[in-house]
Amino acid sequence: MTRGFPKYWRIAHRSALGLAALVLQGCDLPRDAGGTLERVRGSYLRVGMVASEAHVDAGSVTLVGQDRAMIEGFAGSLNAAVQWRRGAAETLYRALEVRDLDVVVGGVDCDSPWSKRIALSRKVGTFPGPAKAHRCFATPPGENGFLLALNRFIVAANVSERP
Amino acid sequence: MTLGQMPPDLKQKLRQARRLAWITIGFMSLTVVIMGLVMGSSQAMRTAWVEDILSLVPPIVFLIATRLEDRSPTALYPFGFRRTHSIAFLVAAVALVAMGAVFAFEAVMTLVMQERPSIGSFTLFGREIWQGWLMIAALIVTVIPPVILGHLKHELAKPLRDKVLNTDALMNKADWMTALAGVSGIVGIALGYWWADAAAALIISVDIVFDGARAARIAVAELADSVPRALDSPRVDDDALRIHRQVSAIPGVRGIRMRETGRMIDVVIETDGTASIDDAVLEAAIGHDAWRIANITFAVRSNATKQALDVANARTSRHWTPWTALPGQPR
Q1: Residue B260: which H helix or E strand, with range?
Q2: Which of B45, B66, B80, B222 is surrounded by the fewest CB atoms within 10 Å?
Q3: Are B102 and B54 in contact (CB under 8 A)?
Q4: B295: phi then psi, degrees, rounded to nearest 5
């Protein structure tokens, strides 16, 4: 309605200004909905390791080893100690969903149907085999600041690893 | 007097409006195709896609109606095709309600299921940047076309007395308001409020459903031969009030009944049979609004009939007769 147009314009104008102000001063944005990053910092990082994954064969120690180095580096960057937990993927994802875990590593498929209920990081590697499916880390849903911090670490680590 | 003939300047405006409808269809179909390709399995994307398809409905029915409404009457359609415009109005209004309802449903489900939206990041110049900022930029860009289209359509709908076009403008308003709701939702998520997106969507969807329901109410009134209503409210239309007042003042006129057929008005003038109403008298009375009058029917009623009708009306709960004044004053 015409009556409505100027009013909405004013709202649009104000929110655009507020947005610009937020982006300029907000380097600590986005924040977590559940405060994971703040909790982990200087404390401990609860990591779930997928015990058995169809894509990973018995000799997958190196795969987990790579992830382990990455996670320990990430925890170190937050001055946090790592608490490991092993379990079936399903169990670990459910724990992640209610923020009983902070990260799940191991055979996490980047195209997992779980991506609707949990968050997936940038890719950290590929599964062994001809398909070369991408592996990711999984984080709790809505913890966007934590996810961004993890992604920044992964991308930095991947860049430095490149020969 | 040119009854039922649109003046040339209005015909020009109608051509402009049709062009705007085509632009909208082009723009929205492009969005629908792109969204369809990148949609994947995301429920939120699917909802946005359904909304985009629904927002195609008003411009399509507008083009169909404006194409058909001026066709000459045929043996099977002796009153012509002006009512296609009323039908298009109802269809467009229902599409608007549906869009608001889909949007509200999605928001309520997110809140009830407590789904926390996760937004990842992308690399730009070697730096990880949160995707939310990119989404906000994209949403602000998508706000602009519907704001412009909606405003232009609304300005054309007023002189054209075109409720389909006005509903199309409301649909554009719904489009840009949902985009703005998306912006404030992502800002909320950035601040750590997972429910912000759904809450913003819910507030906006109430506004959309309200707009749609009001339009649907007017559309139903129109199809039920109600008195002509204003463009965007169930208030009696100003032109109708003016015609009613002026024609009632002509000697010998007992009463006047009007109904809306699309953008046009169908008038029944009841006389006592002694009145001599010629074109000159009518011209003087309703010259200004003449283009909107699709039909004038004269009904001759004797005093006896009037009394009989009065008695019949008095038995029902509503004491209305064609010679009662209409509620409301022209603005």
Answers
A1: strand B253-261
A2: B45
A3: yes
A4: -155, 135
Interface of B with A in 105-134 (CB under 8 A): 115-121, 123, 126, 128, 130, 132-133
Beta pairing class for A134-139 and B121-124: unpaired
**d(C-alpha A104, C-alpha A120), whole Å:** 9
Distance CA A78, CA A40 (A): 7
Cβ of B193 within 8 Å of Cβ of A34? The answer is no
Nearest to B120 by CA among A152, A19, A48: A152
- Both structure tokens of A32: 């977590």
Q: CA-nearest residue of chain A to B140?
A: A16
Chain A within 8 Å of B168 (Cβ-Cβ)? Answer: no
Each of the 331 residues of chain B gets a pLDDT tens digit; together they read 467 778 889 999 999 999 999 999 999 998 888 877 776 556 667 778 888 899 999 999 999 999 998 888 899 998 889 899 999 999 999 999 999 999 999 999 989 988 888 888 888 877 888 888 888 888 888 889 999 999 999 999 999 999 999 999 999 999 999 889 988 988 999 998 999 989 999 999 999 999 999 999 999 999 999 899 999 888 888 888 888 888 888 888 888 889 998 889 988 888 877 766 777 777 777 777 788 888 888 888 777 766 776 676 666 545 555 555 676 665 5
Query: Cβ distance B36 to B49 under 8 Å?
Result: yes
Amino acid, res. B287: G
Report how far residue B273's alpha carbon sits from residue B254's, in angstroms, rounded to the nearest whole number.
Answer: 10
Q: Which residues pair with residue B296 across a beta bridge?
A: B267
**8 Å CB contact of A116 and B41:** yes
Cβ contact (<8 Å) for B190 and A148? no
pLDDT tens-digit readout, A72-99: 889 999 999 888 888 888 888 999 999 9
For strand B253-261 and strand B264-271, is the pairing parallel, antiparallel, or unpaired? antiparallel
Would you state the structure tokens that stand for residue A10, as one six-digit string? 């004013």
ipTM for the whole complex: 0.75
- B7 in helix, strand or coil? coil
Size of interface A-B (CB pairs under 8 A): 97
DSSP state of A123: E
- The whole-angstrom distance between A59's CA and the closest CA on chain B is 31
